[in-house]
Amino acid sequence: MENHQDSIKKSQIKAFKSIPLKRITLLSYSLIILLGLCSCKASKKAVVEKAVASEIESLINTLETNAFHPTWFKAKAKLQSKMDGKSMSFSSTILIKDNEKLWLNGKMFGIEGARILVTKDSVFALNRLQKTYLADDIDWVAQEYALPQILAEAIDLKHLQDIFIGNPILDVIPYTEIDKRESDYVLAGNREDYTSTLMVDATNFQTKSFYLAQSDSQLTVQYSDYRMVDEHAIAHRRDITVKRPNEEDILLSIIYNSVDINKEQNIKFDIPGSYSKM
Known about the structure:
The protein is an alpha+beta fold. 22% of the residues lie in helices and 44% in strands. It is built from 6 helices and 14 strands. It has helices at 4-17, 21-24, 26-37, 50-66, 140-144, 157-165; strands at 72-83, 86-97, 101-108, 111-119, 122-127, 132-137, 175-181, 184-191, 194-201, 207-214, 217-229, 232-243, 250-261, 276-277. The relative contact order is 0.19.
């Protein structure tokens, strides 16, 4: 006779299979919004007091030098999300080939529900449960989720890779202020109706948090649990909050269980002929 635990698991799997692609691929939703938010390019030039400008420039140069760009990056991760009043938990494998592609999947109860590939100019997604696929220009993101025009000016694969690896985002808004808070440096700046802050550790220059706001739209990314991987400090946790006008917050935590760097990976993304386009 089927026990109670097996019955619960079967009902959970059935529910998972009925989830539409937009919810199965919540990681892509949140991170692609993140990508749009973090890709608004701006010049670092700003009219500020010379000494402060020099200090800011020196810190930014140090952060750029300290940034880590492995040829290959692989992480096994757990994803915890909350959106529209519903909480979900996925396991995922994340693969990055520097400046070429980012691949990730979403699994629940051992079943792969979604597979996503982002390249420099395109985004692809498979709903393996409903046998549908997406293949579109990367600016589809801005159209699908109605991102504000300025936020969607430039969607850049590099910035998404930086978020996964933990590099600071430096070219969103020109930083014009710098503050030393105990053991941290805080850079701040604004552009039109944008404000942004970046907090880094003053001792090792690792990113602690990144904040971007435009009117009532806000993005916060917090990095924690840094661990050494082949002599490189990698944040093993990212807590992401996206606030939208008149909408419930999107909450996403990405927790790495293991990380491998500079080991070549086999990135496969094939669209079966039997799949239909969304």
